[in-house]
Amino acid sequence: MVRDMNHQTKNVCVIGAGPSGLVAARELRKEGHKVVVMEQNHDIGGQWLYDPKVEGEDPLGRATIDNKFHKVHSSIYESLRLTSPREIMGYTDFPFVEKKGRDMRRFPSHRELFLYLKDFCDHFGLRGMIRFNTRVEYVSFMADSDDRRLRWVVKSRDVRAETVVEEVFDAVVVASGHYSQPRLPAIRGMDSWKRRQLHSHVYRIPEPFRNAIVCLEEEGRVVFVDGSSVIADTIIYCTGYSYAFPFLDTKGIVVVDDNRVGP
């Protein structure tokens, strides 16, 4: 890459320390920029930082939807394995190779990919750039700037404290992912159905469903469009996720419309 002779070092905020945020931070630092990564969780990994604790959450994720700022956790379940081979799941210049004493399968468990991301982070010395347990609550461009350069105001909070920190950056990289806010269908009878409902976002292990009929009238019958029906003890909605940037205020420049992000 030919470096721009007019290159100026910029202060850049990267939101999220998952796979995209980590490599963005590395490349920006390589280009000579000053980078701060803000990560809401206690470690790197994003979706690959498995969290088994989902007790106390709304099983449909509605608390997540109604609450602007919420505890973000991974959506992966305990027994998940990669559906793509490791050869295409790693970075080009840092291959996802087998390591003795770890999961050496071509389609390894989710923990193996998490450990790979930790290896990447440690190999390139990225951990010192990351502020863990830091939730970004507001991002917007500055209303006035003396030198006419676009700058961004970022307000963040340590999740263990109440103090809000306000900083100004030359650029912001949003790498906060897409798999944290459940997208729910609109089904008649859904609100009045008495049995168990949950979104796959909070599914972790199968044991709670042992000896249950798993697959909306009150007796547990689920009726389909073609008139057929089944009796269900539990409904799990595997209906995907919505794009959500509750912290981002771009005065209407960046919007989410019909689950699409665009200007």
From TrEMBL:
Keywords: FAD, Flavoprotein, Monooxygenase, Oxidoreductase. Its EC number is 1.14.13.8. The keyword Cell inner membrane does not apply. GO terms for molecular function: flavin adenine dinucleotide binding; N,N-dimethylaniline monooxygenase activity; NADP binding. It holds the Pfam family FMO-like. It is an enzyme of class 1 (oxidoreductase). SUPFAM superfamilies: FAD/NAD(P)-binding domain. It comes from the Eukaryota. This is Flavin-containing monooxygenase. It comes from Opuntia streptacantha (Prickly pear cactus). The lineage of its organism: Eukaryota, Viridiplantae, Streptophyta, Embryophyta, Tracheophyta.
